[in-house]
Write a structure and sequence with these properties.
The protein has nine helices and 14 strands. It is α+β, with helices and mostly antiparallel strands. It folds into two domains: 170 residues, Ribosomal Protein S5, domain 2, CATH 3.30.230.10; 139 residues, Alpha-Beta Plaits (2-Layer Sandwich). The protein is globular.
């Protein structure tokens, strides 16, 4: 679509908006790019946008600001992290025809950089807030394409509930779409936090390493079938089928990570202990399945009737710092009357 030219009046002090977005948990993962520059994923992926892990971001474009200033959780970004956000703002400025630099203030209510998809909620909120501030009238699909340019998984956080992210040959073909709203299925995601530390190798670098693994192509081929299984499981609300597919792809993704050159091993001893505990609980008849993003923290999927029991059980394990109980949540939205 053509850029919408805003051309703000020179007397205006700023163009400002605030947006909120939720992190998402991928049931089949986005790992590796078909086009690294455009962050077009190597495969389709299915996710659940969560209600409890949220990012709130304010973007204020100002005519007299010499450069972008980005603060995340009270920390001023510098170096490559700042450049990544500034480049994303350039995409919005180019569409709007507005050269103004921006002040960005973003806050998460969960640990960022620890494999709980803060980049997904962060770039989804940044995209929506920036577009709203500049007066860009973009469809949800267009917003998902733009958000993907900042972080591939951010495309999914534009929407609530259960979401599918498409790969594609062109930029505009790699977009997310909603499958079912948050009320479709009350699946619970218990995020078991065993580390709040930022990982040494961020996901953006890990994506570039994926093709160095001999397992990468095999996983991409397999995930196509797992996606078919997941779409069928979601349509029928078959929790066991959903859980088995999610576990398989999580293990496949981490196998790719561990066999990349250099290898990426995000797991801690507590991660392995949690995997074993979930398997033991399932053997006892409790519907529980694990999935793990690019980090050491474990997501345990279950059904509402078992959530409280599982939460208490998991919290008692050695090394567990917290258990965050989530359910499917809403998509990204502009906050009409923000307060910083």
């Amino acid at each position: 679509m053509e850029a919408i030219r805003v051309y703000p009046d020179s007397s205006m002090s700023e163009l400002r908006a605030t947006a909120e977005a939720g992190a998402n948990i991928a049931l089949t993962k986005y790992w590796g790019n078909a086009d690294p520059d455009l962050r077009i994923p190597a495969n389709d992926s299915v996710s659940i946008t969560l209600d409890c892990t949220r990012t709130v971001t304010t973007v204020a474009f100002q005519p007299d600001r010499p450069e972008d200033e980005i603060t995340v959780d009270g920390r001023l970004l510098t170096g490559p992290a700042r450049e990544r956000v500034s480049h994303h703002l350039d995409l919005l400025r180019e569409r709007a025809g507005v050269p103004w630099r921006a002040r960005v203030v973003s806050r998460n209510n969960f640990p960022a950089g620890a494999g709980i998809a803060a980049s997904a909620s962060g770039f989804a909120a940044l995209t929506l807030a920036g577009a709203a501030a500049l007066g860009l009238d973009l469809s949800p699909r267009d917003l998902s394409v733009l958000a993907r340019r900042g972080s591939g998984s951010a495309a999914r956080s534009i929407f609530g509930g259960f979401v599918l992210l498409h790969t594609g040959a062109r930029d505009e073909d790699a977009f997310a779409e909603p499958l079912y709203g948050p009320d479709w299925w009350d699946v619970r995601d218990l995020i078991v936090v065993v580390s709040r530390a930022e990982k040494a190798v961020p996901s953006s670098e890990g994506h570039l390493l994926a093709p160095t693994s001999a397992l990468h192509r095999a996983r991409v081929a397999r995930v196509a079938e797992l996606n078919r299984q997941l779409l069928d499981a979601l349509a029928r609300r078959d929790f066991a089928a959903l859980g088995h597919a999610a576990e398989e792809d999580a293990l496949l993704m981490h196998a790719v990570m561990m066999t990349s050159r250099p290898s990426l091993i995000y797991w801690l001893p507590e991660t392995v202990a949690l995997i074993r505990r979930v398997q033991a609980l399932r053997a006892e008849g409790i519907p529980a399945y694990f999935t793990i993003d690019a980090g050491p923290n474990v997501h345990v999927l279950t059904l509402p009737a078992y959530a409280d029991h599982l939460q208490a059980d998991l919290r008692a394990l050695p090394g567990v710092q917290a258990v965050i109980s989530c359910r499917p949540g809403p998509g990204a939205s502009v906050i009409p009357h923000p307060g910083e």
